[in-house]
Every structure is written in structure tokens, then in C-alpha cells.
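Supplementary Note 3. Input sequence used for the single-chain structure prediction.
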Amino acid sequence: MNLFQKVKMEYSKVEWPSKKEVIHSTAWVVTMTVLISIYLGIFDILALRALKVLEAII
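The predicted structure, written as C-alpha cells, is reproduced below.
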């Protein structure tokens, strides 16, 4: 059995996700990316303002 036959045999054992599962997973990743981006953006703005206040005090 050569390498390509072994690869083909292993490749046939893979259980591929359905189209619905792929769409659901993609939507989940996009949603979480947007939410985390918003959270980090708000944190960045607040941290910048806090640093400016501290800078004004010092």
C-alpha cells in the first residue's frame, strides 16, 4: 500500500459537516468576532480617556 492509497483511505473516514452546520458555525464566528471587537473598542476608548485624566492630574 503506497502513501496515496493510505491517504485516500484515511480521507474517506473523515466525517464532513453538513452545509447547515457550516453556516451555523460561520455565523457564530462572525457574531462573536463583532461582539468582541465592540467590547475591545469600548475598552480601548475608556482606557484612553482614563490615561488622559491621569496625565492631566500628573
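The mean pLDDT is 95. The CA atoms of residues 20 and 26 lie 10 Å apart.
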